[in-house]
């Protein structure tokens, strides 16, 4: 049975290309896993949506009888389906999971705090608190990505999908420019044909939305 | 070889019982995995620390040649070592990973934002922005934990360790009281003998610190 990815039926123009179904599309494209797309209303979230995703978020994966949410958990699941996404070797696999989680739990929260204040809250003091917390993490990450092509396991993995997609948000806020190693890494990852196909598909999906 | 958990050599009194090595101690206690504790300086973080943990955080796990950071990744690793912590069945395992990640990526960021403002930043507008974002998530979570004993897979898993430990922070801020189902769940999890042993060991560790 084909994998199905549930995403929103519509998002504002500013979110197009950044909805987290992109991470799942990208993984499927890398692994050659065909997928369908289902939609759920973003403006009037349905009981059916909350039954599958208690926080009303997307993406949600459907694979046969399995329904799974959280982009990080879906990437782990797909990583277990395809060695293209996550190595089988215990140490390399642990390294992959470590960096997937670091991207989700150490980087993404400080990135999203800045994105919230920059795009929604517009509160000067909140930004003043959030901005240095973001840059502490970017400064710590930069030397690592100067010294390696991929973040984990010496090869492309789901950790790169997660980390590069988090760095895209930083780039969009104009905060990545002072870290050439991070910008180069993000550009290398997003130049991959699988990313391009996934990105094009998401843009196309929302261009057709009403 | 025995597992080793690296934590700080000292933390302020207010952090005792809440340092994230607790999650790893708890998992080891549940699974009957013996462990040693190593320390690293919190006041003068060393190059050796940053070499093992680029963000200067704890905990770090050592298992033979493997050195692993991020409490979520360490729990996944231990979950693969012991079925007591994570089921082998594909669907139950995916459910466990889904809730581990939801606790880390959907709940912990809004919890930590509130903890930062409450314990460090003391900025009224930032709190006014952060507080409703926390309560949206708690409201969505509460009905689920009213209807089940454990968050994932119908049994105790690493997802309970992560979720219960995140809810402890909410409880400490006095924001859990209006969610009896969440408070009951947290109390059930932290009444487990393995949690009690882990908590006592952490408190004892920092009581001896200088």
UniProtKB/TrEMBL annotation, chains A, B:
Superkingdom assignment: Bacteria
Chain ranges of the GST C-terminal domain: 89-210
SUPFAM superfamilies xref list: GST C-terminal domain-like, Thioredoxin-like
InterPro entries linked: Glutathione-S-Trfase_C-like, Glutathione-S-Trfase_C_sf, Glutathione_S-Trfase, Glutathione_S-Trfase_N, GST_C, Thioredoxin-like_sf
Domain GST N-terminal: 23-86
Pfam families on file: GST_C, GST_N
PANTHER family: GLUTATHIONE S-TRANSFERASE GSTA, GLUTATHIONE S-TRANSFERASE-RELATED
Family of the protein in this entry: Belongs to the GST superfamily.
The protein, known as: Glutathione S-transferase family protein
Gene source species: Paracoccus methylovorus
């Amino acid at each position: 049975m084909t994998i199905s990815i549930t995403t929103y039926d519509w998002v504002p123009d500013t979110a197009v290309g950044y909805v987290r179904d992109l991470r799942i599309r990208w993984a499927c494209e890398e692994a050659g896993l065909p997928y369908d797309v289902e939609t759920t209303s973003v403006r009037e979230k349905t009981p059916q949506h909350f039954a599958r995703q208690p926080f009303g978020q997307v993406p949600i994966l459907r694979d046969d009888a399995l329904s799974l949410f959280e982009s990080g958990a879906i990437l782990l699941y797909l990583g277990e389906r395809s060695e293209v996404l996550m190595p089988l070797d215990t140490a390399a696999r642990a390294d992959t999971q470590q960096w997937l989680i670091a991207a989700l739990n150490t980087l993404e929260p400080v990135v999203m705090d800045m994105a919230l204040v920059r795009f929604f809250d517009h509160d000067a003091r909140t930004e003043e608190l959030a901005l240095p917390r973001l840059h502490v993490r970017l400064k710590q990450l930069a030397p690592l990505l100067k010294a390696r092509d991929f973040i984990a396991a010496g090869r492309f993995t789901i950790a790169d999908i997660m980390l590069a997609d988090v760095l895209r948000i930083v780039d969009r806020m104009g905060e990545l420019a002072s870290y050439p190693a991070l910008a180069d890494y993000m550009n290398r990852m997003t130049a991959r044909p699988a990313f391009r196909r996934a990105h094009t598909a998401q843009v196309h999906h929302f261009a057709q939305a009403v």
